[in-house]
Batch of 4 targets.
Target 1
Amino acid sequence: MANITIHESAVIDAPPTVVYGIVADYNEKHPVILPKPEFESIKVTKGGIGTGTEFDMTMIVMGQTTHSHVHVTEPEPGRVLVEADPKSGTVTTFTVEPVAGTEKTQLTFDTEMRASAGIKGLVERLLVPRVLRGLYKREFTNIQQYVKDNVLATA
């Protein structure tokens, strides 16, 4: 069985601490930046900020509803945050890096997931990366809008 790998990155017009704070806050901020209607729900079941957080998530992508129980770790607090669903084997890594000489942030999403076997897996390998890249681009836009509405507006 082959893996599906998705890599998407964008520059966000905010300092890394602000961007990381948005991504790591599963109680309030992270749910707001998720693209709708695909991310139907997210419910924190443990923790809520960064490492140790667990949440249940429902996604509807390509007509398929997926329920996940996700565990969050921070291999490099303030820089790298990882969401992992042990059942499906899907892992998404968020990496936050400063853009040299600016108050901007390079935010990268890397997702690794298992593809199904056979024809279904072939279709997944062809379509899932395109769909998720589109979702990730919308999420970057949502983060930038959140910064504009909630961070820069109060600065």
Target 2
Amino acid sequence: MHATPSPPLHIGSDECRTLLSSRETQGRICVLEWRGHGEGGPPLHLHEDQDEVFMIEAGDFLFQLGDAQQRLRAGDTVFVPRGQAHAFRQLSPSGRMRYLYTPAGRMEDFFVALAGCSGPPEPAQAEALFAAHDMRLLGPPLAAPLA
């Protein structure tokens, strides 16, 4: 099967697009691409029902998995099992990664909803947005590491 990528969604200055949709896989998996255009990343959270894999294609990222942190760069891959607290922070001015969820769940809808926000969601709005897409918000985004 050949999948056609979606047009990019704009989330702040960053872009997200679906490369393989849940509709194309009967919900088994979805694959997305992230193009970051500045430092930052999502808050600490977990997925109750999905495993997630990140494949770094460009840039420098700090990942937190549970209580451990690690730096990832182009060519690195990390697996996040369902129920594992995680977050990442892009440290470089630009970055690119592919990531996948299995099963796909409602993750594509989450990024569409996030792109529809007029700016970063307020804490209560973020908590509701995550919960509506089967995730649990656990804490703030990762801080930039000390030099």
Target 3
Amino acid sequence: MRALIQRVSRASVRVDGQQIGQCGPGLLILICAMQGDTEAQAAQMAAKIAKLRIFKDDEGRMNRSILDTGGSALVVSQFTLAADTARGNRPGFSTAAAPDEGRRLYEIFAANLAASGIATQTGSFGADMAVELVNDGPVTIWIDL
């Protein structure tokens, strides 16, 4: 699995002009299932992100996790994280999981994140979404598992 996480003051996602998910303060998580990914990897990614210490402690150091802060998460599927730009000017996405498998692993990831105690909302898998966020820091981290 591949994730791009952003520490945010707030974030929201809209489909057809209607807000369907939001969070803040906490994390906006853009997630992509790759070919060959497993349920175990989806669970491992959720656990890693839940425990990742990227929030400030009382001394201003990044030493607290989203679990420590009681923050919330917005999880948005984004197959374009699988982009291969090695050849030419048009990205290829052949390393992304097939849509049905991608949806299944996306849902497992979000469910595991919520089960860890994080208030979690999601976008709409495969939809054309408008994502809005206020990046806090900015802190943006790429994770591959």
Target 4
Amino acid sequence: MRIMGLDFGTKTVGVAVSDPTGLIARGLETITRREDNKLRQTCRRIQEIIDRYQIETIILGYPKNMDDTVGERGRKTEEFGQMLERRTNLPVILWDERLTTVAADEILEERGVPAGERKKEIDRIAAAIILQDYLNTLEKNRGNRS
């Protein structure tokens, strides 16, 4: 069972996929678009990845505020998730993504990636962090049932 993780931003979507066992996430790519509401090519690319990797579930990073409220970006993410469900016929699970971009930036900094180059990689890494957090939660819940 392969799962896709997405980090949905105003101009980019970071994409990660799990390994076939559903244990390990890896960042795949960053999809870029010119405008926030121009999603046709983004959706087409996501569908290509779904088909190639035989994705069964999509985990969509949910940008909640630190006080647990949902702002404008969160509402746009909810709309994007609903659209993805309709277009792909796959379940889309909203997953708390607070501080994943900060964590992704720290990872890139530790790897020695110059600040100017991090922007190209940060969304892909954030998607992998979101997906890995979800996979870890699944695994933990499996262990609690044993």
